[in-house]
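Title: Comparing notes on inverse folding

I've been comparing how different people in this forum approach sequence design from structure. To keep things fair, I'm posting one structure and asking everyone to reply with a full sequence. Here's the target:
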């Protein structure tokens, strides 16, 4: 199972929500010509770590290796542009992502399609729909969410309750609150299979509420106690589709499906789980609107999640909800038969963008011989009819050869990264576990 070898020894995560083509530029133009190819404001984001227990002092050897490989690349590159004189002062921040890569698509949309204008007297009340479990949820957003999921075919919404939140992070915390018994004998265990989303441990334990606690890697959880398992699919950071791994009789599942959209992964079946989390930042790129939504089967759980948000922020901005509804409707319109203009749909645009950037980063990795990337088996998307492998908004990158510490290695070259230890990837993970983690949604 050679395609799983990237999990072993040294592993690096590259978050490429802002610009996946950077790595290709590094290999194509060389280290010293990098900044001449990019706008100074395009600060990109990286994460990194190693699993090797033997820490050898290989700084000089590593730098000589990179210098030699860079010279080889430059010899094959025709007429590289001159680098700015202050290129040595540039620091490339690849530690966080920002989905501005979709900005050009939305700039091309007409004002009538996506612009929202509100008067000062509108949206004054706290309430949106008092008959709804989530009383601050705008009816227009409910319709837009249900319609888009039906058009894409990525989630079941019929007979479910929708809860809106200020991004999916707030909804995650609301779900933990709703699922943790207030009179339990101890905090509820919260687990996720490594490598897991790096913010899960922080968000779980941040308030130290006593209701729940981070219990680590789901593969290692063997307590005969109640637990909540987070299933992120496609998974951040490695990009693979997943199912739950603990499979205990005392477990409750939360499915984080932020990336289950056709620009990132083939849509295979409509997801049908008890609690499903989505967010506008990943689906359409509107991170600044701070809108996420949960699709919840159980009415009581939806009510408790609503209570958490009520106590936390007294609801969610109506202005953001109305803007999000307008954008989601525009996406659905572009995919439906009512779109007779022949214009490119959002999912066509975003798929092509992701495919091109993954092509470039794979070319870069193949040239440098210093890194390796995971391989994703192609599958046919029920939404688009395309057959392709995963196209994550990040890359799980392994350092090869003589590099012992990916994060330190890249930092010496002024590339800021996030170590794999933040994703629970501090030790080798057996191949059998990864076979299970790659099963489809």
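Reply #1:
Here's my take.
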């Amino acid at each position: 199972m050679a395609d799983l070898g990237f999990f072993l020894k040294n592993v690096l995560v590259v978050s490429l929500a802002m610009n996946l083509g950077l790595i290709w530029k590094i290999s194509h133009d060389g280290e010293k010509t990098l900044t001449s190819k990019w706008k100074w404001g395009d600060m990109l984001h990286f994460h990194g770590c190693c699993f090797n227990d033997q820490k050898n002092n290989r700084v000089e050897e590593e730098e000589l290796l990179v210098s030699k490989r860079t010279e080889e690349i430059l010899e094959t590159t025709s007429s590289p542009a001159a680098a700015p004189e202050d290129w040595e002062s540039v620091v490339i921040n690849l530690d966080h992502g920002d989905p501005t890569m979709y900005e050009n698509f939305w700039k091309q949309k007409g004002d009538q399609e996506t612009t929202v204008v509100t008067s000062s007297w509108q949206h004054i009340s706290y309430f949106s729909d008092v008959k709804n479990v989530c009383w601050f949820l705008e009816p227009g957003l409910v319709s837009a969410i249900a319609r888009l999921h039906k058009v894409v075919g990525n989630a079941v919404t019929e007979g479910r309750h929708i809860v809106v939140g200020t991004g999916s992070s707030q909804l995650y915390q609301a779900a933990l609150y709703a699922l943790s018994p207030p009179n339990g004998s101890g905090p509820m265990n919260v687990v996720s299979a490594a490598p897991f989303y790096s913010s899960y441990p922080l968000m779980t334990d941040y308030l130290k509420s006593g209701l729940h606690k981070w219990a680590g890697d789901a593969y290692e959880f063997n307590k005969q106690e109640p637990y909540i398992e987070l299933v992120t699919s496609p998974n951040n950071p490695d990009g693979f589709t997943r199912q739950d791994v603990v499979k205990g009789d005392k477990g409750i599942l939360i499915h984080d499906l932020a990336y289950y959209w056709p620009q990132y992964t083939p849509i295979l079946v409509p997801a049908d789980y008890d609690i499903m989390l989505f967010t506008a930042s990943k689906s359409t790129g509107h991170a600044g609107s701070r809108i996420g939504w949960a699709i919840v089967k159980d009415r009581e759980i939806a009510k408790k999640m609503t209570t958490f948000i009520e106590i936390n922020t007294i609801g969610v901005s109506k202005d953001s909800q109305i803007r999000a509804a307008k954008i989601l409707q525009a996406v659905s319109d572009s995919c439906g038969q009512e779109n007779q203009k022949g214009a490119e749909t959002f999912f066509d645009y975003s798929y092509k963008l992701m495919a091109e950037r993954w092509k470039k980063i794979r070319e870069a990795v193949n040239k440098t011989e210093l890194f390796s990337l995971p391989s994703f088996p192609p599958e046919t998307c029920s939404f688009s009819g395309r057959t392709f492998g995963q196209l994550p908004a990040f890359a799980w990158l392994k350092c090869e050869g003589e590099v012992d510490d990916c994060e330190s290695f890249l930092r010496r070259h002024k590339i800021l990264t996030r170590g794999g230890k933040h994703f629970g990837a501090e030790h080798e993970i057996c191949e059998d576990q990864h076979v299970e983690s790659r099963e489809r949604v």
